[in-house]
Amino acid sequence: MRVTIDESFCDGDGRCVSVCPQVFAPDDDGSVFVLDPEPEPSLRECVRMAQKLCPHGAITITS
Q1: Measuring CA to CA, which residue among 46, 45, 23 is closest to residue 34?
Q2: Residue 50 carries which DSSP code?
Q3: What DSSP element (H or E) covers 28?
Q4: Does the CA dihedral 32-38-43-47 come out positive or negative?
Q5: How many beta carbons lie within 10 A of that of residue 47, not counting itself?
Q6: How many CB atoms lie within 10 A of CB 54?
Q7: Is the pLDDT reported for residue 63 higher than 90?
Q8: How buried is residue 63: exposed, middle or buried, by Cβ count under 10 Å (0-12/13-18/19+)?
Q9: What's the pLDDT tens digit per position in 15-55?
Q10: CA–CA distance, 19 with 48 (Å, rounded to integer)
Q11: For the chain, which domains are there?
C-alpha cells in the first residue's frame, strides 16, 4: 500500500490525522502531510477510513 495526498485538494481539515495519526500529520502551512507513505499492513484499515472521511478526496491509496 502506498499513500499520497494531493496538496491542491487538501484543506487541512484533519479528519485523517484524527483517524490515523501514525500515517498523517498536520503541516505548518495548514494542510496535512503523509508521515509514512508505505504504512504497515496493520494500519490499512485506518488509512482506508482516513481516505473515506477526507471531504475533498485528497488521499490516494495505491497497491
Answers
A1: 23
A2: H
A3: none
A4: positive
A5: 22
A6: 22
A7: no
A8: exposed
A9: 999 999 999 999 988 899 999 999 999 999 999 999 999 99
A10: 10
A11: 2-62 (3.30.70.20)
